[in-house]
Amino acid sequence: MLIISKIAKVDTTNKLTVAFDVSKHKLNYFAEISGKISGRSAREEKAVQDEVPNTTRSLFATLSALSDYASKQGFSGLHITCCIFRRVRQVVTI
């Protein structure tokens, strides 16, 4: 089998980046927003994190909620990064 690797060009302009840690039974995620969040002149930081069951229903609900949250914060979408731990650590960007 021939495996070709190349660096993916992913446009993350105006996307909320969410990092997921994937395990067999649960998903942990984290996202951070920096800037003038509340309209004040000071720079602010806000973080969102949680742990949810690793089920299809839970994942769809979580992604939907994160998409709504990103939209309310002025982002045009989500950029998802997943860390999958098996024998070897693999980092997958979707």
What this model shows, in words?
The protein has 94 residues and is α+β, with helices and mostly antiparallel strands. The protein is built from one helix and five strands. The protein has one domain (15-35, 43-93). Strand 2 and strand 3 (44-53) form a beta hairpin. The radius of gyration is 15 Å and the shape is globular. The model has no long low-confidence stretch (mean pLDDT 80).
User: What fraction of the residues are assigned to beta strands by DSSP?
Assistant: 35-45%
Based on CA inertia axes, which overall geometry fits? globular
How many strands appear in the DSSP assignment? Answer: 5
Question: Which secondary-structure class do the elements indicate?
Answer: alpha+beta
